[in-house]
Amino acid sequence: DIQMTQSPSSLSASVGDRVTITCQASQDISNYLNWYQQKPGKAPKLLIYDASNLETGVPSRFSGSGSGTDFTFTISSLQPEDIATYYCQQYDNPRALTFGGGTKVEIK
Amino acid sequence: EVQLVQSGAEVKKPGESLRISCKGSGYSFTSYWISWVRQMPGKGLEWMGRIDPSDSYTNYSPSFQGHVTISADKSISTAYLQWSSLKASDTAMYYCARHPGELLNWFDPWGQGTLVTVSS
């Protein structure tokens, strides 16, 4: 299986800060990489698909980039409602989908 | 509105069987695949497997192959996840999620989750 390594596992930032999360694949996955937000007690929500495509209705402060093995997820200006855990997910092998370990984002 | 509505929380004993459900509405159920995802208490997301409701073709993660069965009844737009003999380690939240196709594997939307507790 393709392993997805997310970092950091947690972070604390102030409202308005730029937040960056990275996800590294154990092999080349092209742009087959998605990002999800999971708020406490809720189901995950798709934010970005195919590495950089913003899902309809998702605020533009969220963005994604990268290809191959290295990917970045950015919140340009952290808001209180962005407190959540964020996960990357690869689908280069559609029969063995895998998630990163998650990044918990908190307000400082 | 596209929705996936899952069955309610379950409390079971080790060795018992269980089937949980995921009903789709607001879209053509046979035009999208359904995956199941496990989240153990305080842990991350694990993909279990998926089904094409149009023909019930399934793929399983090697980690879950042989431990669970995924099925679907397209006549009632419902997918299922079942166990024949539960273990305490099956205690988790289980989510279903829709994805656009066999090669398009982003999950949107997700069901609200079904909490399964296995305890003697």
- Give the uncertain stretches of chain B in residue-range form: none
- Nearest-integer average pLDDT of chain A: 97
Structural class of chain A: mainly beta
Low-confidence stretches of chain A: none
Q: What is the β-strand count of chain A?
A: 11
Going by helix content, strand content and strand pairing, the class of chain B is mainly beta
Apparent shape of chain A: globular
Strand ordering within the main sheet of chain B = 2-10-9-4-5-6
Largest sheet of chain B: 6 strands, mixed
What does this structure look like?
The complex is a heterodimer of chains A (108) and B (120). Helices cover 0% and strands 50% of the residues of chain A. With 108 residues, chain A is mainly beta. The radius of gyration of chain A is 13 Å and the shape is globular. In chain B, the strands form two sheets. A six-stranded mixed beta sheet of chain B has the order 2-10-9-4-5-6, with no helix packed on it. A four-stranded antiparallel beta sheet of chain B has the order 1-3-8-7, with no helix packed on it. Chain B is mostly beta strands and 120 residues long. In chain B, 38% of the residues are buried. Chain B contains no helices and ten strands. Chain B is globular. Classes of the chains: A mainly beta (108), B mainly beta (120). The A-B interface holds A 1, 32, 34, 36, 38, 43-46, 49-50, 55, 87, 89, 91, 94-102 and B 35, 37, 44-47, 50, 59, 61-62, 95, 97, 102-113.
